[in-house]
Amino acid sequence: MKRILNLGLIGLVLAFLSCKSQNYNAMFDNTEPKLVSDQFTFTEGPAADKAGNVYFTDQPNDKIYVWDWKTNKITEFLDKSGRANGTYFDENDHLITCSDKEGEIWKISKDKSVEVLSKGFEGKRLNGPNDLWLDGNGGIYFTDPLYKRDYWENFKVEIPEKNLYYRNKDGKISKLETFTQPNGIIGSIKSKKLYVSDIDAGKTYVYDILGEGKLSEKKLFCEMGSDGMTLDKEGNLYLTGDGVTIFNNKGEKIHHIKIPEDWTGNVTFGGENNNVLFITASKSVYTLPTKTKGLR
Asked: Which phi-psi region, left, alpha or beta, contains residue 69 (left: φ > 0; alpha: ψ -120 to 50)?
């Protein structure tokens, strides 16, 4: 009986490893992330425009750069970005940014003109909008943790809670939930899901999107926090911190991508076919071709 049980256990382990291997092989070639550039101070906020070029921030230096997938070259897009952190493109290819120097949300056009979409909540300064996701209805979900920056001038905490907010298409902001330290956020219009990381609590949660700015009770998705995050078309969730860790839509870990940096801040899909992982990690940015595609 013991031998049978042992054989059964071995079979289960082999089946698990086989499943994991199949999942990995279906997503990646046997390649390592490729360093594109290490010229930065701290990279964050990657987002792909409609052409597949990826814009990202170097927040300490208050700049936004763009990676051109055709040439694999990086050029400066904008100086003085309000200390942009997380970013996302809207349907008109405007770059929406969490610009935390003054606790604002910006809309930046390709001609580099800027519109401030949000300056605070109920007359109070936000702590520092960190990451955001657009719901396709003109609404913006965004996280507002508190990471005090050396470059903030005359800053005082006006909102002691660290919250998840929703800004509707008319500009009204609603507080949705309080966390220990909310950070990465991503959603799926197709599956009507919203994922939010409570990074200091070491957890990522998932909500059902019930309407514009209306969410179900949060459910624990996995026991891991994340800085930035993204989704692929199969519904796998990519979390960052120690490299990139991938979970399937059931919250099961299926793969880990090692990145040779102290911290991996964020990740998105870009490139001509939206199938290249673009990874921001400390002073560097990396690319990794995949066999899947990002969720648009």
From this structure: alpha
